TrEMBL record:
One of its GO terms (cellular component) is tRNA methyltransferase complex. Belongs to the class I-like SAM-binding methyltransferase superfamily. TrmB family. Residues 126-131 are annotated as: Interaction with RNA. PROSITE patterns: SAM_MT_TRMB. This is tRNA (guanine-N(7)-)-methyltransferase.
């Protein structure tokens, strides 16, 4: 969902180049060692974080990891930045760019996890290639992830979930966890789950949340 433009958000992003990389040149790899105090920490990426509840909560909960919020919309990037600054999350960077260039922004095998939370379902067949679980995106994730890296995916859209299962299966991915009703899973699963804004809203309405964790096996 596209957010309404907020001038303050754009202004905030421009004032903090140390925290936000704004639409970088895809032909140049980003040197993440200059963005994080300790690049040896596990790196986790959320693609399309929206307002950022999930990624900022993760960064706060796991200070021993580095996180990147890859977000196309400048307004959303500004909202994430506002929370980052308020909570002093030095282990979170914001990358304002297109997810289609994820393998250009990150070196090969640099990340341990990629999160896809409540992505646009692009339900029309002619838009299939835009879905973040389409095979070309999976190929890019495989390049960016380490050998034991995972893709974690959540959605409220049954059609997108079914499509993603099939797409990942056809790509040869291994499923470590699959749920068609995440919020009614075992207590240990619920304890580990960090909600997004959309997730909280949809679950409160009684809608099931679909989730899966998958990896690419040995490269």
């Amino acid at each position: 969902m596209r957010l309404r433009n907020k001038p303050w958000a754009v202004k905030l992003v421009h004032e903090h180049p140390e925290s936000v990389i704004d639409r970088p040149d895809p032909s140049l790899k980003i040197d993440w060692s200059k963005r994080f105090a300790d690049i040896s920490r596990p790196l986790e990426i959320e693609v399309g974080p929206g307002k950022g509840k999930f990624i900022t909560t993760m960064a706060e909960k796991y200070p021993e990891k580095n996180f990147v919020a890859l977000e196309l919309q400048m307004t959303a990037a500004g909202m994430i930045l506002r929370t980052k600054l308020a909570k002093e999350l030095s282990n979170l960077q914001i990358l304002c760019g297109d997810a289609a260039n994820i393998d250009a922004f990150f070196s090969a095998h640099i990340a341990s996890k990629i999160y896809l939370n409540f992505s646009d379902p692009w339900p029309k067949t002619r838009h299939e290639k835009r879905r973040l679980t389409y095979k070309t995106f999976l190929q890019k994730y495989q390049t960016v992830l380490r050998a034991n890296g995972q893709v974690e995916f959540k959605t409220d859209n049954a059609g997108l979930f079914a499509y993603s299962l099939q797409s990942m299966n056809n790509f040869g991915m291994n499923f470590d966890f699959v749920s068609v009703d995440l919020h009614n899973e075992k207590e240990e699963v619920l304890a580990a789950n960090i909600e997004t804004e959309y997730e909280h809203k949809f679950a409160a309405q009684g809608n099931p949340i679909y989730a899966l964790h998958a990896d690419f096996g040995v490269k």
